[in-house]
Amino acid sequence: MPANLTPDYTRAEDRLRRAATDAERLDALQEMLRTIPKHKGTEKMQADIKHRLSKLRKTVAGRSSAKGPDPFHVPKGGAGQVVLVGPPNVGKSMLLARTTNAPAKVAEYPFTTALPVPGMARFEDAQIQLVDTPPVVADHVPGGLIGTIRSADVICIVVDLSTDPLEQVEMVRGLLASRGMSVRSAPRNELGTDDAGLCSGVIVGGKSDLGSAGTLDTLRDLYGGDLEIYPVSAETGQGLSRLIERLWQLLAVIRVYTKQPGKPPDFTRPFTLDAGSTVADLAARIHRDLPTTMKSVRLWGHVRFDGQQVHRTELLRDRDVVEIHE
């Protein structure tokens, strides 16, 4: 039976041949396994890819244990992780510095950021983790960066509105596509599971104070159907609060507050849960044994009356207050 290999597979195979680092080899092999047609004619090829993946992972794991943690791995924090991806000198580091307290390195020369830098941006009483990343160019992606991007909850394609943003958007989208990823401006819980490489995200047009309205209109005409464009200026602060609000919406999370019996709710530290979470999901976040030990639950918020007793399967909504009795 012929293999009938897809163009996506052959591109991934070509990337494997050109890979210079183990991270790039891992990414290419994973993409080959994901895109290879699954039928009897490719069973031996699939087995070979899996064997090579297993062997390479063991090699990487051995080196990691000797050298320490992966510098491109950013543990998630806050309500969700948003990664900033773009070419050199588009203002990613300044955007991070302006919206968070992270010690981002801002300079006029390119490739200032060598490793991912996380920071916390505030949205009302919650926090969103923004991650500045090393810049990408058409023929080079830093080793390990694809893993950082792939694990993020939301992707921001950051471009400079003052210098040919169309070319920049196409370059970043092309790099993502070559790794089996695409970005659409829809909340995470609305993307579905048919396309494992489909990610939630937006285009962020940096330096909007220097760009022209015509350029922005062109971007919206070209990408408005799938990708929203948010013009911002880290220099003046223009558009930043609107961007952060939209990122919150794309993360598709809710804030839930807790209270102890006879005491006021704790509004200082909300629990952030995926939209569609239940009382039982909240209980598990509080303590792993709580879902089995809780006896009753009272709810303030979207229910008919305050303090209404609800079942453990009750769906929670943003800003609900929950009181759990053991």
What would you say this structure looks like, in words?
The chain is α/β, with parallel strands linked by helices and 326 residues long. Helices cover 35% and strands 21% of the residues. The protein is built from 10 helices and 12 strands. The chain has helices at 7-18, 22-35, 43-67, 92-99, 145-151, 165-178, 213-223, 240-251, 279-286, 290-293; strands at 81-85, 117-123, 126-132, 154-160, 182-184, 198-206, 229-231, 253-258, 266-274, 296-300, 308-310, 320-325. The strands form 2 sheets. Strands 1, 2, 3, 4, 5, 6 and 7 form a 7-stranded mixed β-sheet that branches. Helix 1 packs antiparallel against helix 2 (22-35) and helix 2 packs antiparallel against helix 3. The chain is globular and about 65 Å long. The mean pLDDT is 87.
Q: What is the rounded Rg?
A: 23 Å
CATH superfamily of the largest domain: P-loop containing nucleotide triphosphate hydrolases
- The CATH class of the largest domain is Alpha Beta
Q: Report the sheet-strand fraction.
A: 15-25%
Give a short overview.
With 326 residues, the protein is of the alpha/beta class. Helices cover 35% and strands 21% of the residues.
Which helices and strands, and how do they pair?
Elements: H1 7-18, H2 22-35, H3 43-67, E1 81-85, H4 92-99, E2 117-123, E3 126-132, H5 145-151, E4 154-160, H6 165-178, E5 182-184, E6 198-206, H7 213-223, E7 229-231, H8 240-251, E8 253-258, E9 266-274, H9 279-286, H10 290-293, E10 296-300, E11 308-310, E12 320-325
Parallel strand pairs: 1-3, 1-4, 4-6, 5-6, 6-7, 8-12
Antiparallel strand pairs: 2-3, 8-9, 10-11, 10-12
Helix pairs in contact: 1-2, 2-3
